[in-house]
């Protein structure tokens, strides 16, 4: 699978990074000794699942199944202003490791009506 790494700007150490699936991030320290990967599939019909319950330090991976999609976090509905994913091509993935608790609401830039939530505790 071919993917590219993207940069992320985040405040207060909310996340380690948003990068191509399989890449590692060297910024921040993951406090979770046993992180879990939560997978979300993106399609033109929405996110599956559309809500993820995650522990601090877990990974959330978005994978596009049918078209080019891009994730944007809704600043007014998230604890921090997070950068979006950039394009995620068919079969490609991007992941985020959240290091701050809270409810993060995001949308698909190509299908603006589709939203999802990551609840980090």
Your description of this structure?
This protein is an all-beta fold and about 120 residues long. It has a single domain, classed as Cupredoxins -  blue copper proteins (Immunoglobulin-like, Sandwich), CATH 2.60.40.420. Helices cover about 0% and strands about 45% of the residues. The protein has no helices and 9 strands. The chain has a 5-stranded mixed β-sheet, with no helix packed on it. Strands 4-9-8-6 form a 4-stranded mixed β-sheet, with no helix packed on it. The N and C termini lie far apart (about 30 Å). The N terminus is likely disordered.
SSE order in H/E notation?
EEEEEEEEE
What is the percentage of strand-forming residues? 35-45%
The description of the largest β-sheet is: 5 strands, mixed
Which class do the helix and strand fractions yield? mainly beta
Terminal CA distance reads 31 Å
Overall mean pLDDT stands at 79
Number of continuous helical runs: 0
Please give the number of β-strands.
9
Tell me the CATH architecture: Sandwich
Describe the structure using short key phrases:
121 residues, mainly beta, Immunoglobulin-like, five-stranded mixed sheet, four-stranded mixed sheet, 9 strands, globular, disordered N terminus
């Amino acid at each position: 699978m071919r993917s590219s790494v993207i940069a992320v700007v985040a405040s207060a150490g909310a996340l380690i990074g948003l990068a191509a699936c399989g890449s590692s991030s060297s910024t921040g320290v993951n406090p979770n000794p046993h992180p879990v990967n939560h997978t979300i599939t993106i399609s033109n019909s929405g996110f599956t699942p559309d809500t993820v319950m995650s522990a601090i330090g877990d990974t959330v991976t978005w994978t596009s199944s049918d078209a080019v999609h891009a994730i944007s976090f809704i600043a007014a509905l998230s604890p921090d202003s997070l950068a979006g994913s950039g394009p995620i091509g068919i079969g490609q993935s991007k992941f985020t490791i959240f290091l701050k608790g809270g409810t993060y609401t995001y949308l698909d830039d190509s299908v603006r009506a589709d939203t999802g939530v990551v609840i980090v505790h």
